[in-house]
Specification:
This protein starts with a strand and ends with a helix. With about 280 residues, it is of the alpha/beta class. It has one domain: Spore Coat Polysaccharide Biosynthesis Protein SpsA, Chain A (Alpha-Beta Complex). The relative contact order is 0.12. It has a seven-stranded mixed sheet with strand order 3-2-1-4-9-6-10, with helices on both faces. The chain has ten helices and eleven strands. It is about 40% helix and about 15% strand. α5 packs parallel to α8 and α7 packs antiparallel against α8.
């Protein structure tokens, strides 16, 4: 089972080295590591060059086109049996690819997989790390209510007809997943937490802007018939909840209160799973 690691990188010189070291330290080594330099203007190219003798590294250089386009370029260049995605500001535990290979072999009929994450805030007092809740996805409602799939956890067979969103005013992942769900191609959860997801860095630093891009992608999915109006309304509740949760972590009580009230207002008349209702009322 040959696994191609795909890493998009745009002005990622501060963090790319950590990501590549985490690949280098894997107990099961990748078939190749495809790094897509998406028009970087910093020292990203130098970081990539420094790993050329240490990893089976393939560098794809392109004019800046955005995260979705960079991942798609990596997929086109990759030659492995499966893709394992890693963003340039995240890192893997050393057993990530071992678990991925195990599940790819054990479950040949499953086309893609995801894992839980550790939310990671380097430099914070204390450990700066916590495990995020990550339910199993059995249907589209589960995904929209709990939103557990982070791209740096995804492992996918390379024969899957899959494409990340390339429109830059939309989030690149959520609509792409919904397109798969609409075809009945559901993922399997690998229970091992093997990814550290960096918070308050890159796109997660602008929480509200990030949610706006996500909702534009979900609106597109609704227009394409991938989800219903009711499911769209459920996702609106979920994203307001996430904003309240984000501002609670940041200690911004005013914005936490605003987004909690927004989530509760949007939940009126919407069929919200009991677990999400409980989180709305008691966790934020």
């Amino acid at each position: 089972m040959n696994i191609s690691v795909i890493i998009p990188a745009y002005n990622a010189s501060e963090t790319l080295g950590e990501a590549l070291i985490s690949v280098e330290q894997q107990h099961v080594q990748p078939f190749e590591v495809v790094v897509v330099n998406d028009g970087s203007t910093d020292a990203t190219a130098d970081v990539i060059q420094s790993f050329m003798g240490r990893l089976p590294l393939v560098c794809v250089n392109q004019t800046n086109a955005g995260l979705g386009a960079a991942r798609n370029a990596g997929m086109r260049a990759a030659k492995g049996d499966a893709w394992a995605f890693l963003d340039a500001d995240d890192v893997w535990g050393s057993n990530k690819l071992a678990h991925a290979r195990d599940y790819l072999i054990r479950f040949p009929d499953v086309q893609w997989f995801y894992t839980p994450i550790f939310e990671w805030s380097p430099g914070m007092h204390g450990s700066g790390i916590r495990m995020r809740a990550c339910p199993k996805i059995q249907n589209v409602e589960d995904f929209l209510a709990f939103n557990p799939i982070v791209p740096s956890t995804v492992v996918m067979r390379s024969k899957v007809a899959f494409r990340w969103e390339e429109e830059r005013d939309m989030q690149e992942d959520v609509g792409a997943y919904l397109a798969l769900f609409s075809k009945g191609v559901m993922p399997m959860k690998i229970p091992h937490c093997t990814t550290k997801y960096r918070l308050d860095f890159g796109m997660t630093a602008d929480a509200e802007g990030h949610v706006e891009k996500v909702m534009r992608a979900v609106e597109k999915a609704r227009e394409l018939g991938h989800i219903s109006d009711a499911l769209f309304a459920l996702y609106e509740v979920r994203k307001s909840y996430e904003l309240a949760r984000t501002y609670k972590k940041r200690g911004d009580q005013a914005k936490q209160k605003h987004w909690k009230e927004d989530a509760l207002r949007k939940a009126d008349g919407v069929e919200v799973p009991a677990r999400l209702k409980w989180r709305l009322r008691f966790l934020i």
